[in-house]
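INFO  loader      accepted 1 record
INFO  loader      residues=329
INFO  predictor   begin
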Amino acid sequence: MCLVVSSFGQKKTKYESFKNELTQNKYTIEAVLDKALRYSSNNDIYVSELLDACKYFSSDRQKFRVCMNAYPRVIDKRNFFQVYDLFNSFSFAVRLYHNTQGNQNTISTINYPNADYYHGVTTNACNQPLSEYQFRSILNGRRNNSNLNLRELKDIISRNCFSTSQIMKLTETLQSNRSRFELLQFAFPYSFDLENFYYTEQLINENYIKQRLIRFIDREIAQINQQGSNFSNCRPLSQNEYNYVLNSIKDENFNKEKLKLAKQHFERNCFSINRIKIILKEFSFDKDKLNLLKISYQNCPDKDQFYRLKETLSFSKYKREFDQFLLNR
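INFO  predictor   done
INFO  writer      dumping tokens
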């Protein structure tokens, strides 16, 4: 016999509305899965509702994804054992247990900041963090790949805007204090709620490194405040950071992705004339180079020398367009 523990005054959820939407519309199974993942990421749910939602899926793999995704928001976790009976394959039930109830001894005691009502210092480079659904997709991917290293985490962070809480959860996957410190330094400009970044000190248990982290945050916040409310998405890079940016662009195999990554870095960071020139050498077409030049101009600290970058272009058509661009500034 299956016993469901319940209580009076049960919290009301939005599941009925969600279920009605699925019932009244003819969605593909992929669309149903996507909607189920989104719903379970953003809404509290009871086990009985989770069991009902899984009836839409015949695949154990799909059920596993929905249950894994929903577990943090399950209200009555004491009833979660019922979910294991959903699976035809015993291995999926075991995996789900080990990643949820069987992992309770590793639940973090970290105090994460809430960015929902944050009104402090921000930058134009990161003014809207990832949704929790988008972030969980990244985090679950990280947990399924134990070999993801510091550089790969930097690559993920450099392509997105995160809340401090999300950055902390990514950083927790690293073991050493020094690796965590390095990642947190790198991640700072990609954080939305910058003044909450002090919460990250909880991730460092060596006092010397923790004090270095706090001093680093102090300096970064002070620099932003000195530049006032008009602080742009311009951020000078250290030599190590610049080397990382350059190598990450070089490592892209396809021009489209290489161009996309370069744009992201030019929009967020300050680059000198010489550094811009070196990055542009990674591109073959004048059209791409001119596009990047226009983006990089806004954050270039030595704009009076920007005309020198005309030499990176080969064809007169694009050189004339570059000249006209500078005349219009």
